[in-house]
Write a structure and sequence with these properties.
The protein is built from one helix and five strands. By secondary structure, the protein is an alpha+beta fold. It folds into two domains: 1-38; 40-88.
């Protein structure tokens, strides 16, 4: 009984850390992964460098994106921060 009373605060702290820190991060990572997998040609995205680009071609691990009318570059899917939604 004494061991249980000593371990109870640690178990309580671990449970709080799970619900406050770990679970929200896992949920956000899952949402981001789903967003990246759903990207298609013509979507606007914001890169890690802050560029707003248009998806030109989706590959297995990479995206070909248009920076302007003439420039198409290849970048990793991990570089995508989020989709860009026009404020119209």
């Amino acid at each position: 009984m004494e061991i249980l009373s000593q371990l109870l605060p640690f178990i309580f702290l671990i449970a709080i850390m799970y619900f406050v820190i770990i679970r929200p991060q896992q949920k956000e990572a899952k949402t981001r992964k789903e967003m990246i997998e759903a990207l298609k040609k013509g979507d606007k995205v914001i890169t890690g460098g802050g560029l707003i680009v248009v998806v030109h071609k989706v590959e297995e691990n990479f995206l070909s994106v248009k920076i302007n009318e003439d420039t198409i570059v290849k970048m990793t899917k991990d570089s995508v921060i989020r989709k860009y939604e026009d404020e119209a």
